[in-house]
Amino acid sequence: MAEPVLRLDGLCKDYGEGLVLSGLSLDVYPGEFLTLLGPSGCGKTTTLRIIAGLERPTAGRVVIDGADVTGLPPEKRPVNTVFQNYALFPHMNVFQNIAYGLKVLGISKSEQKERVMAALSLVRLTGFERRMPSQLSGGQRQRVAIARAVVLQPKVLLLDEPLGALDLKLRQEMQQELKSLQQKLGITFVYITHDQEEALNMSSRIVILNAGHIEQIGTPEEVYECPLTLFAADFIGQNNLLHGTVTAVSPEGLSLEVNGVTLPALPNEVFSPAVGERAALCLRPQRIRYGREPQHGMTLKGTIRSKEYVGGMQHTQIALGGEVVLNAVTQSAELDSYPVGSEVFVGWNRRHAPLVPDAPKEAV
Amino acid sequence: MDASHKQDLRFSRLLKLPMYLWSIVFVFVALLYVIGLSFLSRGEIMGVTGEVTLGNYARLASPDYVKVLLQSLKLAALTTAICILVGYPFGYLMARLSPVARSVVMLLIIVPFWTNALIRIYGWRILLMSNGPVNTLLMNLGLIHEPLKLLYTDGAVLLGMVYALIPFMILPTFTTVDKLDFSVVEAARDLGASPLHAFFTVTVPLTLPGLMAGCVLVFIPSMGLFFLNDLLGGSKSVLAGGLIQQLINSRDLPMAAALSVLLLAVTGAVIAVYRKVGGTGDMSMF
Prior knowledge:
heterodimer, A: alpha+beta, Rossmann fold, CATH 2.40.50.140, six-stranded mixed sheet, five-stranded antiparallel sheet, 20 strands, elongated, B: mainly alpha
């Protein structure tokens, strides 16, 4: 793999009220669209501010393009930021806003103009150069903020929830636009969001952050299909989380006892528990199969508890024994023929139901 | 417009009535009186005669009056300049303090207002006397061997002016800096600006309304504060405010009125410039 363009090495941050970041290490490679995803308070904004130089880490290093920049102020770092509230200069027009960084660098007037115009056309705002920020819509301000940052051709572009303030439709449009912009420019993006859908749609890699540490790093597919921790499984998408104890381990797999019901499961490279260990099975609702006959490995018996038809999808609750209730989602209308209360066989491909360590109860 | 709305409107007009009455009697009528007086001549009975003249204004152009006016403008300009240099950074830093620290500082600025200005200036007189605390301290430290002449100097007047008026620079500055969204300053740094460059290209322009409001609030009163010159400067150099008082004492009311009208015109010009330059600070009183 290529040399990382950005390396975070053991970052800690303590505002005096406990650690906000506890030893965060991460490599970002050239051309990546890397998303830091996590709930509010997980330390993602702090991480971004430390990369930008707006915040000093309590411990750890920030290395950009092989150079340690931990001690450098923001103006000396080859990164630029698109701020959450855009932070456009309200007393300058669009042109002056975008030219600000070029002017600081002492670039000639003619080159300034050329580069600002190129940046404006990139974000499709040609003709807006004389407008003041107050005369722009939210989406337009967003584009000016992006143009202002990319015009400096940073090594890494940092984006702090840039779509958070936009309405749903505009947000979806901008997602596409940002993604194609990133591909066009080839600049490495470090993108912050708490919106998992946004992260799954746009990123080449996702870093799931929780309480100041990394839960999982992976492609959108990896973090969705193969969560490594309970937090990751719970945070991304819908999941049936079945907490239990391992009762048997054999070469063919293992058995997990969940509230008196024994479920089949497979260990993986990261987590292969021994008998007696706690574990949780993560089962996506759309992975669950059920029917009258025990085919395709549908070995468990269950009862249809309730059904709900939601926009082309059939949501079904199936009870396995007393306490274990699965949420299943199917697209097929045929399955509608199972009335509430009917007995069915239930099953799933064990490879599609990853096993993760069960966290202590209070942490869930 | 429905009936209840109409009633509300009538009620709000009624509530505004005392304000209008006050303004008409004590500002508008008084102003007309002063302007009218400035076109009359000095007389034995009641201090004026009915003879209408432009003579008072003609006398304002004489070198003595011009000198007084220039001196007053110079002092006002100097006072404003020092208030900017001290008051703007003060207000800026104050807005960056923790909420507790800033309320303490705010209290320290406001508390002196609870005491009469005259009494506070007498305090300065004591401090600056030749055998006062300042001289005593400097002599005890061995920095000087004989008392400095501090009181009754132009410096003492300037000090008094700055002391009396600096809160009017600090408070509007504080308000605008406090309202400033500092993420724009961070954005400037992020785009490559040094702290100083970011300050002058982003912070200062965005807090200019407060700074300009402060300038107007300092400059205008400093044209008229006559008792400071009397108490701290010993009235060696005559200023416009003091001259008006002297003219009243010598019963030349029309001349005093003419000089007052001139001061008003200067004040009006300052405000006009302020509005022209686009002052948008909390200056709703103008």
